[in-house]
Each structure stands twice: as C-alpha cells, then as structure tokens.
Amino acid sequence: MITNISINSIQELKDACLSEKGDYVHFRMLLAGGLACSSKRIMYFEEDNSFNVINEIDESYQDDLTEAQLSSETMIVMAIERGALYHSKLF
Fold first, then answer.
1. What residue ranges in the chain does DSSP mark as E strands?
2. Please, what is the Cα angle at 37 between 39 and 44, to 5 degrees?
3. Under DSSP, is residue 36 helix (H, G, I), strand (E, B) or coil?
4. What pairing do the DSSP bridges indicate for beta strands 85-90 and 25-31?
5. What pTM was estimated for this model as a whole?
6. Kind and range of the H or E element at 77?
7. What averages of pLDDT result for each successive group of 10 residues across the chain (91 residues)?
8. pLDDT at position 53, please?
9. What does each C-alpha distance from 11 to 17, 20, 49, 56, 70 come to in angstroms?
C-alpha cells in the first residue's frame, strides 16, 4: 500500500529523505491544482546540507543543490509552500 504524506517544510523534506539513508526517496508534486503531477526522487546529504534530485519524467538530474538552489532551480520549495509536495511511502 502506498501512502502519500504531505511535506509542509524544508525540515520535513529533510526528515523524509533521511528516513531512507543512502537512497533516493520518492515524492510527488501536484501541478495545476492537482490536474497533473510530477514525480521526483530526492536524496539529502546531512553532512553538507545538499540535495540531489532526479526528475522522473525525463530522468534528468540535479546534483549538490543547496537550499537556495533548491528554491531557485526547482519547483520543490514552491510546491512545499503551496501544500503540493507529497512523500510517497510504501507500507
């Protein structure tokens, strides 16, 4: 069973990523008011406070993003602020 857990802050994003240390964690981002979605795999590195992101639509990736870059170079922070980012967790 897959459960989608809402991510409401950068700290919740970090915590969700750390729940599966050493591996990418699956997230879904709702777009256009929920009419579409985008899937991401995100890994967080606590030691240098950076993120790696794989965009599942085209398998493109972004490495070593700071929190500022996560905000300026992706839509992830905007999705968090709008309540549109979900951690897809398998139970």
1. 2-6, 25-31, 36-45, 50-55, 60-65, 85-90
2. 30
3. strand
4. antiparallel
5. 0.90
6. helix 76-81
7. 88 93 90 82 96 94 97 95 89 60
8. 98
9. 10, 15, 11, 23, 13
Residue with tokens 């809402």: 6
Provide DSSP, 8-26: -SHHHHHHHHHTTTTS-EE
Burial of 13 (0-12, 13-18, 19+ CB in 10 A): buried
**46 vs 16, 35, 50, 76, CA distance in Å?**
12, 34, 7, 18
38 vs 68: CA distance, rounded Å: 21
pLDDT for res 21: 76
